[in-house]
Amino acid sequence: MPVEQPQAIRTIFFDAGFTLLQPNPSTPEICQRVCRQLNLHIRLDELKQRMMEADDFYFRYMRVNLHTWSSETTISAFWEDYYMNLLRPFVEENDETRLYQLARAINEEFDKHTSWQLYPDVLPTLDVLRSHDYTLGVISDWGISLGPILRNLKLTGYFDCLLISAAARYAKPSPFLYEQALQRTNSIADYTLHVGDSYIYDVLGARAAGIAPVLLDRARRLTETSIDCQLIHTLTELLDILEIT
Q1: Is the bond preceding residue 124 a cis peptide, omega within 30 degrees?
Q2: Residues 6 or more apart whose Cβ sits within 8 Å of residue 236
Q3: Taking the model in full, what pTM does it have?
Q4: Which of 6, 10, 147, 170 could disulfide-link to 176, CB 3.0 to 4.6 Å?
Q5: Cis ω before 6 (30° cut-off from 0)
Q6: Under a CB-based contact definition with an 8 Å cutoff, are residues 213 and 207 in contact?
Q7: Rounded mean pLDDT of 94-123?
Q8: Which helix (H) or strand (E) holds 73?
Q9: Helix (H/G/I), strand (E/B), else coil: 17
Q10: Per-residue pLDDT tens for 137-192?
Q11: What CA–CA distance (Å, rounded) separates 145 from 147?
């Protein structure tokens, strides 16, 4: 589903996690490293397998706790629960105190910019968009650590606004985040795109605010015929949508 009148687009908002940023080096490797520092040694293949199984916990939790991303407290509580669930098979006698210590340490590790890196296509795409005078912003379900992470990764200079769910007290797909971003950038929804990796949170959230969504599918699981919105597989494909030569 192509974007109508791409030449009229003047503002572009981006999701952060798995759109601009990815874990560095990877989530299982970060978990393994933190556990090793706390004297719990887990084989990486075992941790990867357990992480696949933990996806069920993640989705069940999100279905029940719809406002998880709307406060720093609930975000931290979720990640601590998630990592406790993840590591429980590796801790003797399900020692809850030990599990909490490990989970909290992992959660704190992901608050550091060193646990994140940019995808290779991010800076080249942002440089081109900036050179064409687009207004740019970030709208993300994240804790307040996202600000320092983006600053340390030298990204904040590209963006005219940063909307973080924990600070705004609203989470995707609520249109409030998108509407507030439009207000902060003095932008009009009809001339705005939002790029993100989640159909539910990014596509439906943007649409609710009247913003045209672009779904980023880096894993190439989807095709144009299987989705009802503009689909890209790399961030640089956004330049083709905008007909930037």
Answers
A1: no
A2: 121, 124, 125
A3: 0.95
A4: 170
A5: no
A6: yes
A7: 97
A8: helix 72-87
A9: strand
A10: 999 999 999 999 999 999 999 999 999 999 999 999 999 999 999 999 999 999 99
A11: 5
